Amino acid sequence: MKSEIIQRYIHGDTLIIVSSLHGICEEIAKNQDITQNSSYLSLGIAAAFTAALAAEQKEDETYLTACFKWTKTGKSIAVTAFGDGRMCACIESFAPEADTDSTVLEVTRHSDVGGEYRSVVIGKNVQGAINAYISESMQRNAKWKTIRDGRKTTGIFVQELPGGADLRKTWDDIKPFFKVLDENELINAGCEFLGERELKFGCHCSRRSAQRILETIPPSERAALGKTAEIICKFCGKKYEIQNE
User: Fold this and answer.
1) What residues form DSSP beta bridges with 242?
2) Which residue would you say has higher pLDDT here, 117 or 50?
3) Are both 94 and 215 inside the same structural domain?
């Protein structure tokens, strides 16, 4: 199966979204200095899931951020995906509010029209957090599966449409695809191809956003930066030199 792609299918009363990534994760891993295989695996799952959620965005500049937080390690992966297929991510540390071993998933939808909407769920692991988001926040009858093939990650999101009742049948019908990751298996299972869109690494940073970051720094700390401050994007590493007035 091709990578860096989002594909949409329909099977009876069920929508299927397939997201497949490899090169994007490689670019993110390079920018974020990810070397451990476990961290790369988590990145692949987070990126595939975020891409599938963003496939519903209607406008190119509307974007979605899914942040997975592991309370045991104090590490987080935030993946941002735009309606036009751009994706980027940031790996950070945080201070857990409680001494627990769980995965927190924060999904934020950004829109120039509706502003920001954020939902937070908790699961025992990544899959549990995704299941919690689907049932509690999306409130949909849907299933999610992630498959790793070498360093390529493929996510399958199967969602029952309003009034439908074919989710279980669809899931059983497309199971052969899980083993071979061949689009023909979906067609053979009775899925109708609706279209596809290319995914690509692309950050949402700009000189304007760098200026906003500088403005959030306390005046006492800004003074120490000199007349020109260097702001580095935590997602892509791009450097901006901003006049510090």
Assistant:
1) 229
2) 50
3) no
Report the alpha-carbon distance of residue 19 to residue 208 in Å, rounded: 31
Q: Which residues contact 33 (CB under 8 A, 6 or more apart)?
A: none
65-78, pLDDT tens digit by residue?
999 999 999 999 99
| Maximum mean pLDDT: which of 26-40, 51-65, 89-103, 208-222 | 26-40
Instruction: Name the helix (H) or strand (E) containing 227.
Output: none
Distance CA 185, CA 156 (A): 13
Q: Is 212 found in the same domain as 168?
A: no
Number of structural domains the chain divides into: 2
CA distance 124 to 83: 30
Q: Give the Cα separation of 66 and 54 in Å (integer).
A: 10
Residues 143, 232: one domain?
A: no
pLDDT for res 234? 86
Distance between CA atoms of 218 and 244, rounded to whole angstroms?
A: 12
Residue 151 CB coordination number (10 Å): 16
Close Cβ partners of 11 (under 8 Å, ≥ 6 residues apart): 166, 170, 173, 174, 189, 190, 191, 192
98 backbone dihedrals φ, ψ, rounded to 5° = -140, 155
Q: Which residues in the chain belong to E strands, given as ranges?
A: 5-11, 14-21, 63-70, 75-82, 86-93, 103-111, 115-123, 142-149, 152-160, 192-198, 200-201, 228-232, 239-243
CATH of the domain at 69: 3.55.30.10
